[in-house]
């Protein structure tokens, strides 16, 4: 089995991974490993933008306040302070590096999104911020001679020696060969997991690999019950959900139920611009009330030319579905979008395992609380990607012993069995662990997942078997933590515990071979 040595190993190529690799490259050699292409990630598909308090009437203090409110009492204040203060610096740093955000008459066009008290969302290419930003950072990464990229290569396990992470084992999908990457530190930046649900805005790669790898290695996970459902994803029967950016509501779009009523004004003072958890839950209630599978998003009352110019990519995509976003009522329903919890880290992205770091959506830094504030995710990638890279670069080289590692195959004939189980689990998760949960159905889900687990060979010899085991494990972690949290807060809503409880102003921590436990937020 080939062994390759680097100073830092970055797993994942979204904005967090690209940012981490770029900053790590200033301190030594870097491997960036991705199971698809470098430009396939949640970051790439981000339409909304990146939040940054750069305007004269705004401040990091106001941005901090909005983030804390959206997090519903579970944000770690020090982490949020770092996000909003260093985030502003990272945005200005990007601009100085040559990143072009949208301007009009020499001034940056700042958007408004749910939960924000000021216009502070920078966009690039209108509604293509993720594509433009990841493309910009990808070019920077490709220009660094100290970075080597490995596409179509999936990490199958983290190598832990004497309690320390010293590398990763991976499988090259093209050659079928197993490869060992050795390094002083590993940074997980593998993104989210919302593809474990049947209706989601995420690309096919977002199946929670990083969470599963870290959990198997002994890392602590936090707040896995909090999954954010994006309120406005196009609903077309038998088609994948297509995200319609929150920025559309920022420009004045209305939410209407199936009998034409605008209902959000009665729910929240910010109406359609309330935090995402409130909007998604309100839509769910309207769908229940009117026995419909969707509600409507309307822009008929807005300036058509302005909407077409501002959201040109969304406009084109909707035309493919047969809709004119300026004239038609668009059928929408919430879809699984963002993992709020994840691998627990400190303020520098380091986990409880020395040498193992995490950043971006896969990490739980304490920034998001129980509900992510819109457009904070790309900002978190930049801030904590840099922090993780800089702390990782301080790790000292360690002599590691030669080991015989078990190679995994990647047999095509096992792929269909994986997809069958994956789809079965996705339906189960969407039905019982979606926007609204209930104790008896969560327990039913846990029991069913244990039964599915018995169908997987105990001795894993193939990549598809590993993927199946990982998805079962991830879904169990989410369902178990959702069952433990006997309240409704942020992205976790219980039908049988409908109120927020001060007794649950706690993080749920999960770790392999240990019972879940609670820790309080830092005072």
Question: Can you put this structure into words, describing what you see?
Answer:
This protein is α/β, with parallel strands linked by helices and 523 residues long. The protein folds into 3 domains: 2-153 and 340-392, FAD/NAD(P)-binding domain (3-Layer(bba) Sandwich), CATH 3.50.50.60; 233-334, Succinate dehydrogenase/fumarate reductase flavoprotein, catalytic domain (Flavocytochrome C3, Chain A, domain 1, Alpha-Beta Complex), CATH 3.90.700; 408-502, Up-down Bundle (Methane Monooxygenase Hydroxylase, Chain G, domain 1). Helices cover 33% and strands 20% of the residues. The protein is built from 14 helices and 26 strands. The chain has helices at 15-24, 42-45, 60-70, 77-97, 129-142, 209-217, 246-250, 276-289, 304-310, 312-320, 377-392, 415-432, 439-453, 463-484, and strands spanning 2-5, 8-11, 30-33, 50-51, 103-104, 107-108, 110-111, 121-122, 147-150, 153-161, 164-172, 178-182, 185-188, 221-222, 227-234, 242-243, 254-256, 295-298, 330-339, 342-344, 356-358, 363-364, 436-437, 493-494, 506-510, 517-520. A 5-stranded parallel beta sheet has the order 9-3-2-13-21, with helices on one face. The chain has a 5-stranded mixed beta sheet with strand order 22-20-14-25-26, with helices on one face. α1 runs parallel beside α11 (377-392) and α4 packs across α11 (377-392). The mean pLDDT is 95.
Overall pLDDT level = 95
Morphology: globular
> What is the total tally of β strands?
26
Q: Kindly provide the name of the CATH class of the largest domain.
A: Alpha Beta
Number of helices: 14
CATH topology of the largest domain: FAD/NAD(P)-binding domain
Q: What proportion strand? A: 15-25%
Low-confidence stretches: none
N/C terminus separation: 49 Å
Query: Which structural class do you get from the secondary structure elements?
Result: alpha/beta
**Second CATH tier, the architecture of the largest domain:** 3-Layer(bba) Sandwich
How much helix, percentage-wise, in residues?
Answer: 25-40%
Count of individual domains: 3
The major pleated sheet works out as: 5 strands, parallel
The Rg value, from CA coordinates, equals 22 Å
CATH superfamily of the largest domain: FAD/NAD(P)-binding domain
Strand order, sheet with most strands: 9-3-2-13-21
